[in-house]
Design goal:
mainly beta, Lipocalin, 2 domains, nine-stranded antiparallel β-sheet, 2 helices, 20 strands, elongated
Length: 239
Amino acid sequence: MNKSNIFSVGAILALAACAHEGAPAADNDAGGRDAASALVARGNEPGWRVTLGADMTDFVLDYGERRFSAPTPPPTAADQGAVYRYGDVDATLTISDTLCEDDATGTPHPKTARLEEGGRVLNGCAGEPQSLLVGGEWVVEDIGGGGVIDFARTSLTFEGAGRASGLGACNHFSGSYELTGEGLSFGPLAATEKACPPAVMDQETRFFGALAATDRFEMDETGALILIGADKPLLRARR
């Protein structure tokens, strides 16, 4: 029986929205330049951040104690990426198109960064974690190590405005998610209230439970999305 009723699934898991310890917090170094179009590279121990804009690059080093800017040079092609050489400030930034996990939080980023400056080498990540999530439907292939029913499609789609939607094996759902420097969480989900066979409903319950318990995510070497809660894999999905 198909009803239009809406019910709430799960609960909000509060996560701090501040930047993780080690990397300097965001500021207005860009001097009015379009931050949305800039590529940000950052790392830890000591905390550093480089904002790579079309015309200028802003450097924030040593936990924010050193700050300077330099014109963005033309990139030189490198294996799986590009190299930017800043002769005026004796710095070289290498951006590689390889997956990177933040060494403080484990949050995945789409690119790997390497900064050579002042006779030292600083390693870190670049790009926005959200770009790994958006851009298509994730089809769930395992929940809690128990697999899924082949004919009971379960899916999840991340949208850029912090909205999530999908199919919970039986019912369509939508809701919110929050992605911060510390992890990933889902807010309450609203779903249609349709009855399905018990096994399908059980899978849906397990799916919604996994979303409610999520506190971060990982990407494995095959490109699969893994939702993590309390350091345990809760769900695996693939595009």
